[in-house]
Design brief:
Layout lengths: L1 H9 L4 H7 L5 H8 L5 H20 L1
């Protein structure tokens, strides 16, 4: 659902209309999509770096 919502809003569609067309009616669900910040790629980058450091310490 998030990918579809983000793609359509990025192309210029009204977020309210996109949520309606996706069948998301409850305000608690709508706010989750409207306020979502997609930071998983940044978080994973730091996690991968920490794992590399752990592995480097094992070898020394």
């Amino acid at each position: 659902v998030w990918e579809e919502f983000a793609r359509r809003v990025k192309t210029g569609e009204n977020p309210d209309e996109v949520l309606d067309s996706l069948g998301i009616k409850r305000y608690c669900c709508r706010r989750m999509l409207l306020s979502h910040v997609d930071i998983i790629d940044e978080v994973l980058r730091f996690y991968e770096e920490a794992e590399k450091r752990k592995e480097a310490k094992v070898y020394y």
